[in-house]
Amino acid sequence: MLKKTTSAFVSLLLALTLNVSPALLAQDEDAAPKISISFADDDEAVAETPASPDVTPPTGDTPTGETEKKPAPQMTPEEELFLIYGWFLFHRSQVDLLELTKEEKLALLRGAAVAIDRRIIDGWEDRMPEVTALMDERWAPVYERMQRERKAQTVELFAALAKEENIKKTSTGLFYELISEGTGKFPNSESTVAVEFVATLIDGTVFETTEGREGPIPISLANMVPGVREGLQYVREGGIIKLWVPASLGFGSEERPGIPADSALLFEFTVHEVVQTEPAPTE
């Protein structure tokens, strides 16, 4: 929400997921065992999990010469949590969108196993330009498709908002709805206000919120994106307002952590107090 600053509420886990540097894999590199990338290195291979066989209820005794299949061993509670953690890391990276082949999936899992074992892939630094080029090539069509879908969803959303009687549109293209007008004073573009809020993308993804914090936080309207700075001036102290901010009044084509480029932003603010109101600067 703040201009030119990283969201203060992005979780540490997400930050680690999105910003892991290859250098982190090289801790104590001189002492770490190294491996070859070659799949012929059987000691380092990651076994592929076979597909689950079809299971049919037994109709009688097990035929002579056949061994009854034993149920798969159950995970411990901690192992289940690690399973979820592993899923979370890959899910948040959205690597599934690359539509990897079976062989590529195995290579990716093998790389993860190497990192978990605190080992080093020999020559990885020299090959990072190739890795970057490949990822740019594979991700480009994914980003383009997602951007087209996001723009189409935004157009549909704002067309629907224009038909709502309780929702107003300003000359800048901002949509807002006063849930509660409040009874106090209005802030101006230079005010500091104490607020609680939830900020989401149009698909409902929360990218910033004060939920879980101890009460409202102070924000300076001068440091907000234009849509928020404008919208909060329509609600009094003690009021609640919803804002639908087009990308042109948000971060535009700039991609931010958790916020794709050209994203419309949705906010719900509860304004507890106009802490400080400075007169707008005059030219």
Can you describe what's shown?
This protein is an alpha+beta fold and 283 residues long. The chain has a domain of 109 residues: Chitinase A, domain 3 (Roll), CATH 3.10.50.40. It is built from 5 helices and 9 strands; from the N terminus they run αβααβαβββββαββ. Strands 3, 4, 5, 6, 7, 8 and 9 form a 7-stranded antiparallel beta sheet that branches. Strand 5 and strand 6 form a beta hairpin. The longest helix is centred in the middle third of the chain and has 38 residues. The N terminus is likely disordered.
List keywords for this structure.
single chain; 283 residues; alpha+beta; Chitinase A, domain 3; two-stranded parallel ribbon; 5 helices; elongated
